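Section: Multi-chain targets

For targets with more than one molecule, the full set of components is provided together so that the structure can be written out for the assembly as a whole rather than chain by chain. Components appear in the order listed by the source. The example entry contains two components.
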Amino acid sequence: RKEVEQDPGPFNVPEGATVAFNCTYSNSASQSFFWYRQDCRKEPKLLMSVYSSGNEDGRFTAQLNRASQYISLLIRDSKLSDSATYLCVVRSDYKLSFGAGTTVTVRA
Amino acid sequence: DAGVTQSPTHLIKTRGQHVTLRCSPISGHKSVSWYQQVLGQGPQFIFQYYEKEERGRGNFPDRFSARQFPNYSSELNVNALLLGDSALYLCASSTRTGATNEKLFFGSGTQLSVL
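Its structure, encoded as tokens over all components, is:
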């Protein structure tokens, strides 16, 4: 079983739409959680940390459910510039484990 | 301030050859991690170094090795290259290792092609 699993998508949405997707992780002892964004074959960039109480950063909302071991990301009012691959990332000790990514394409 | 820098940006090698990839962390960062990203997959953890010592190792064969220098820069070495080693190799730096909310900053990577 993969350590982090994500729906690969693609999610193809119009500008202004809301899009949401999840990931699941296998290690119940995982300590911290992140969403990274990766544009086509460029380096991953931190989008936001994910906290147990849920957190927002502008149009982005992240949720963590430790009991069910899943993490979600919701994007409101999608912009063309939100088109990217979103990587779900889980930390266990020194190691970050990445999902394979969810591809989002926002169309005009 | 410069971000994480990696060199070279692209590299073409043949099977059986050896390769050295280089990484300079953000100034003040003492931890460097290496990741391999095969097309269509997420990055896979290879090594982490902190204060010049190996602090973690992923599930990669002994053909992969790394080291960190006194100035905190790092090298990743891969011997006896296989076709399957073709990937984007990412270096990431952080201020320290193991902190719960430690954030990694990635370089733009080295694209290695093995023919």
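The mean pLDDT of chain A is 93.
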